[in-house]
């Protein structure tokens, strides 16, 4: 019989419930984007799907960071690189490191040298980089190019998740400063993506490593790891610690894994790109030495682009092989290149680069204060670590006791770690807490002038460290200006960068980040001067280094402590309870981001530059300012004799004029112009995609139509007139496509497709009807046979042993007869008709009849499974009593009469207890007909399977 219909209905109901549940959680997916100089990886977290790499259109797990423009079309990834081989200036690559750079930055100069075929001009407003595209008037900034890649990343993520995604965590190199991080956020804004956090790539890789190894951490001894990440552009090394730390929850504290970055070292230009460029130049020199053509291959941009692509392939092959041939057909002047290159030659070309391999690792160890003996393992990350000589130098120069770790996926570690962070920050997911504390790579200080008291003396400049080298963040700091009572200004910028070389300092750009002018200081002070009990505590500027590594000035205020008269009554018990509860439920972020005071020092004190102990090494100028964290409405007792006085803290906000001194991304009209530009390009891409889809659908429909009409099943379902009409229409559309169709818009192509579909659809429907009708009739026959079998079994059983009424049995019998008669008649009529005529017996009508018989059977089966048969009890044997003698005295006829009466009475009691009140029809039937001795017992009912189902349903009902 197959699967019972009621089971199918139950499964469908459960599926619909689950579908509705899933529909409610749509829109919760988040993504992470690891956008590197050469490759971009995208990971997603969606309901029911843990961290997963999103595949691109080619079903690959990573996409080249490349964008090409050619003939009004925009391409990405591999398609863009294909365009770049023929038209190098049309394909933009390795533009990530141009974010936040002015035109005179050393990185920009190096980029021009590496890729001379780009037309790079200064932005007239911001003096940043602009790519002028060919001879057109199109200009693209690095922020716009990054925004395009982020938009493409979201497209990959949405295709994988099957829903819209607007939130992301983006990984960036750790050596990105304030300008680069701000530019990255602006690029995401242009793309319409909400950035939950910028995370350093090495921190994301360390997080990906830690989330699967929390069982190996403990709360007493930290586990130290080194992560060595050599990418395409640069190399980053981090030293991190893993430890279990108790949460701050006072009610139910638990051990939480904690990741802290202790030391970082990097080499900005040590990576696979530099090796590839040197190999490219080596191949060009080798080819020129062959004298196959008088032209210099280095002067031809297209030839150099071909060599650059081949050098990248050759570099990857030589990582696994000792030698290989570089081959390019038609490199220049129709001349082919075939040059054998060995791994030794490549290593000789990059000898100075391999000498620098260990330098970032040593800097990271030095910054962390640890030695290599304390490092558990050196974990490799990044595609550059696949080069054998890189691994050899690490083993030789680091002298670690443990072998190099290769358990991380070198390409995807950062993307997956950032995806976990995205799920943690998103409101739609609940993940196990994993606390991360990053480290400040470039220290930040505040510089200001002491307030001039004697006009004849020059103002002395004071510097105060806000965030020292390797200070953890996120974190808040406060700096207090005690002497200034007039409007003044101060500068925020990078502090001493002795751990960097001179060229690297130049790469950071402007060392001054912002100039902050405070207005209304004098008015704020004058407001409280002369007030009795008012004591000013100076101007306090509140800074924060947020999760993304960005410095934020939160607010500036004048702090005043006022002594006021309080009520003589003590604080009420209810108020005390309220304050106690408020203190108990402080969030963990208040502890993690605790504001730390940084005070203004006296003039005679030397400027403290200790990087890791900023707070402890700054002296307090005003000793009355020792209480930095006094909150509004806090009370401080004055003395035991004056309990009616209390101190109230008043905060007066100071106006701030914030002028940024580093490279800022586009603002206002320029920002809106960039957003409109990206939106316009997206519309063009969508129109192109729609046109391609429409054209493909039309061409496919023509081919399939002609092929199907050659098949007997389809040709027999069409008349000669219909066949001729369809073939003529196909020829007409094919001729139109060759002449004008390929330049037509999507709407015109769709209309042609609809015209063809109108005349083809009736034939296809007939073919489908003829093909499906036998199986549908077979299913209907099976349902009728099963129903007949069920009906016969019921008829062979008396009504009082089944839950069915005579009306229900007659209804089923009538329905079976009607459907059988209808089916036989319709089948007979259908067999008389040719296949080219519309059928009289359609699949839809068969389905309706099938549904009606299944519905009736489902009703009866449901009633049967919920029915409990009557239980018959054996007659009770009564003990002999004193009436025995009387019974013996009775005649045999009198004894029979008494016995009959007693039996009937017993039967009446059984009926009243065995039947439910609703079974009145069955009770009446029993009362009318006497109990037969040959009637089968309930357990002997032929229908056995529903009884089993009844037991299962009873159990399920009990659990619910």
From TrEMBL:
Coiled coil: none annotated. It comes from the Eukaryota. Keywords: ATP-binding, Chaperone, Endoplasmic reticulum, Nucleotide-binding, Signal. It is found in: Endoplasmic reticulum lumen. GO terms for biological process: endoplasmic reticulum unfolded protein response. Its main location: endoplasmic reticulum. The keyword rRNA processing does not apply. Belongs to the heat shock protein 70 family. This is Hypoxia up-regulated protein 1. It comes from Acyrthosiphon pisum (Pea aphid). The lineage of its organism: Eukaryota, Metazoa, Ecdysozoa, Arthropoda, Hexapoda.
């Amino acid at each position: 019989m197959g699967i019972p219909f009621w089971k199918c209905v139950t499964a469908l109901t459960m599926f619909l419930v689950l579908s509705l549940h899933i529909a409610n959680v749509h829109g919760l997916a988040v993504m992470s984007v690891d956008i590197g100089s050469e490759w971009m990886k995208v990971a997603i977290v969606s309901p029911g799907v843990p961290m997963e790499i999103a595949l691109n259109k080619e079903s690959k797990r990573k996409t080249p960071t490349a964008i090409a423009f050619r003939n009004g079309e925009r391409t990405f990834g591999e398609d863009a690189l294909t365009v770049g081989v023929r038209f190098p200036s049309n394909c933009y690559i390795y533009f990530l490191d141009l974010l936040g750079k002015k035109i005179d930055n050393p990185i920009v100069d190096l980029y021009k040298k590496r890729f001379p075929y780009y037309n790079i001009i200064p932005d007239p407003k911001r003096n940043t980089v602009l790519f002028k595209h060919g001879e057109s008037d199109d200009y693209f900034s690095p922020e716009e190019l990054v925004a395009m890649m982020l938009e493409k990343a979201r497209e990959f993520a949405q295709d994988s998740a099957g829903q819209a995604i607007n939130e992301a965590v983006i990984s960036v190199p750790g050596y990105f400063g304030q300008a680069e991080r701000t530019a990255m956020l602006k690029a995401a804004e242009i793309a319409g993506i909400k950035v939950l956090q910028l995370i350093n790539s090495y921190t994301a890789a360390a997080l990906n490593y830690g989330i699967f190894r929390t069982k190996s951490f403990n709360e007493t001894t930290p586990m130290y790891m080194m992560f060595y990440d050599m990418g395409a552009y640069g190399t980053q090394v981090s030293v991190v610690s893993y430890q279990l730390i108790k949460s701050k929850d006072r009610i139910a504290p638990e051990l939480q894994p904690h990741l802290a970055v202790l030391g970082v070292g990097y080499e900005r230009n040590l990576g696979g790109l530099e090796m590839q460029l040197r190999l490219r130049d080596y191949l060009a020199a080798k080819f020129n030495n062959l004298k196959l053509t008088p032209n210099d291959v280095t002067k031809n941009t297209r030839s150099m682009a071909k060599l650059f692509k081949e050098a990248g392939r050759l570099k990857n092959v030589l990582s696994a092989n000792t030698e290989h041939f570089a081959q390019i057909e038609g490199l220049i002047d129709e001349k082919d290149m075939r040059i054998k290159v060995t791994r030794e030659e490549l290593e000789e070309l990059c000898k100075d680069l391999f000498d620098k391999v260990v330098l970032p690792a040593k800097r990271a160890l030095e910054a962390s204060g640890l030695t290599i003996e304390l490092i558990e393992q050196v974990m490799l990350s990044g595609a550059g670590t696949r080069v054998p000589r890189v691994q050899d130098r690490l083993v030789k120069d680091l002298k670690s006791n443990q072998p190099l770790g290769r358990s991380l996926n070198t390409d995807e570690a950062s993307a997956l770690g950032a995806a976990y962070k995205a799920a943690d920050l998103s409101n739609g997911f609940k993940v196990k807490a994993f606390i991360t504390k990053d480290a400040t790579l470039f220290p930040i200080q505040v510089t200001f002038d002491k307030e001039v008291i004697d006009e004849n003396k020059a103002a002395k400049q004071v510097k105060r460290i806000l965030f020292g080298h390797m200070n953890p963040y996120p974190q808040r700091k406060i700096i207090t200006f005690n002497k200034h009572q007039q409007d003044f200004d101060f500068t925020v910028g990078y502090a001493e960068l002795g751990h960097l070389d001179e060229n690297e300092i130049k790469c950071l750009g402007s060392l001054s980040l912002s100039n902050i002018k405070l207005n209304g200081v004098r008015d704020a002070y004058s407001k409280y001067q002369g007030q009795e009990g008012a004591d000013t505590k100076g101007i306090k500027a509140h800074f924060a280094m947020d999760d993304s590594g960005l410095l934020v000035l939160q607010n500036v205020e004048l702090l005043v402590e006022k002594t006021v008269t309080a009520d003589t009554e003590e604080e009420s018990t209810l108020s005390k309870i309220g304050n106690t509860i408020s203190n108990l439920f402080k969030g963990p972020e208040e502890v993690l981001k605790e504001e730390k005071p940084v005070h203004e020092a006296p003039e005679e004190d030397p400027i403290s530059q200790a990087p890791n102990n900023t707070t402890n090494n700054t002296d307090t100028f005003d000793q009355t300012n020792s209480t930095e964290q006094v909150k509004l409405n806090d009370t401080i007792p004055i003395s035991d004799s004056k309990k009616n006085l209390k101190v109230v803290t008043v905060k007066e906000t100071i106006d701030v004029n914030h002028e940024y001194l580093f490279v800022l991304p586009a603002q206002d009209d320029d920002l809106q112009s960039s957003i409109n530009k990206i939106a316009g390009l997206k519309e063009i891409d969508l129109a192109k995609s729609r046109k391609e889809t429409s054209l493909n659908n039309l061409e496919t429909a023509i081919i399939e139509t002609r092929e199907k009409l050659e098949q007997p099943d389809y040709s027999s379902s069409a008349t000669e007139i219909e066949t001729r009409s369809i073939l003529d229409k196909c020829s007409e559309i094919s001729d139109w496509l060759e002449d004008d169709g390929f330049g037509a818009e999507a709407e015109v192509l769709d209309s042609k497709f609809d015209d063809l579909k109108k005349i083809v659809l009736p034939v296809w429907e007939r073919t489908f009807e003829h093909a499906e009708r036998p199986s549908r009739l077979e299913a209907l026959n099976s349902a009728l046979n099963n129903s007949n079998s069920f009906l016969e079994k019921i008829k062979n059983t008396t009504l009082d042993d089944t839950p069915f009424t005579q009306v229900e049995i007659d209804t089923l019998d009538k329905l079976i007869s009607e459907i059988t008669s209808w089916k036989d008649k319709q089948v007979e009529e259908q067999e008389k008709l040719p296949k080219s005529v519309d059928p009289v017996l359609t699949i839809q009508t068969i389905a309706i009849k099938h549904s009606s018989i299944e519905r009736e059977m489902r009703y009866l089966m449901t009633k049967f499974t919920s029915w409990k048969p009557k239980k018959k009890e054996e007659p009770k044997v009564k003990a002999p009593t004193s009436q025995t003698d009387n019974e013996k005295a009775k005649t045999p006829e009198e004894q029979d009469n008494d016995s009959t009466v007693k039996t009937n009475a017993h039967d009446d009691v059984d009926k009243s207890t065995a039947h439910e009140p609703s079974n009145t029809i069955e009770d009446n039937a029993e009362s009318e007909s006497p109990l037969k001795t040959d009637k089968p017992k309930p357990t002997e009912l032929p229908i056995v399977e529903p009884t089993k189902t009844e037991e299962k349903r009873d159990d399920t009902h009990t659990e619910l």
